[in-house]
Amino acid sequence: MLSDLKGLQVKYIPALAFGLILAILTFYIFQLSASLSFTLQFLIATENLTENSPQWLLLLVQDNLIALLPALLVVSAYRRLLPRFPFNWLTAIFMQLPMIYLTYRVDSFSMKFASLIEVVLSLVSIINCSSVLIIYALMQSVNYFGKNKRALNFS
């Protein structure tokens, strides 16, 4: 029984390491985008910007792309560089754990939905806490539908 647990720990350590790389990469990309963001400059320059202005949706798109693209890069790199290690839901969860911790420490899980800006910030927190799981699910669906071309036929 103990040997099974030891094997489980060793098999998923690279996934945790790649998750740590993802968390650090995402943190620095968010820091860089805060200083170089055209979206932020646009929002600052917008007159009569309220908490429910539709311009906040641009921030949602930008922040979600910042969260999902590095996750796609890191998950793809894990899959290509370590093909002998498991690539399953548990791998995705181990990769996601450092990102959940970083999101908790930086944003403290903003879950308010009273105005559009609060909805945007809450959705960004949710996407950050599930980016690897979303990418893993998308990769699995592409693999499934790529193999079963009849599943895409709607007639």
Key features?
155 residues; 5 helices; elongated
Task: Describe the 3D structure.
This protein is an all-alpha fold and 155 residues long. Helix content is 77%, strand content 0%. It has helices at 2-36, 38-45, 56-81, 89-107, 116-147. The longest helix is centred in the first third of the chain and has 35 residues, at 2-36. The radius of gyration is 19 Å and the shape is elongated. The mean pLDDT is 88.
Quote the distance from N terminus to C terminus. Answer: 50 Å
- What is the CA-atom radius of gyration, in angstroms? 19 Å
Regions with little confidence, pLDDT below 50 for 5+ residues: none
Helix percentage range: over 70%
Write a short abstract of this structure.
This protein has helices at residues 2-36, 38-45, 56-81, 89-107, 116-147. By secondary structure, it is mainly alpha-helical.
Q: What order do the helices and strands come in, and which of them pair?
A:
Layout: H1 2-36, H2 38-45, H3 56-81, H4 89-107, H5 116-147
Helix pairs in contact: 1-3, 1-4, 3-5, 4-5
